[in-house]
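<tokenise_the_fold>
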Amino acid sequence: MKNKDLNELKNKSIENLKKIIADQEKEEKQTRLKLKIGKIKNVHLANQKRKDIAKIKTIIAEKNFMEVIKNQK
């Protein structure tokens, strides 16, 4: 995932990000299955999907943290 994509994700709402995570998790499962079957030769795709999911989850955590801080003031 490129920095440009990350910046676009930071502007999206938490609900949209959760939908994106669900889609990414489905793609990761399919990629891992295809990898085990032998249809995909690039073994790094599954790990890259996992890292992308982690990045999106980090963005959600940051947004939740910022909301908590705003509510405290």
Q: What stands out?
A: The two ends are 34 Å apart (CA to CA). The longest helix spans residues 44-72.
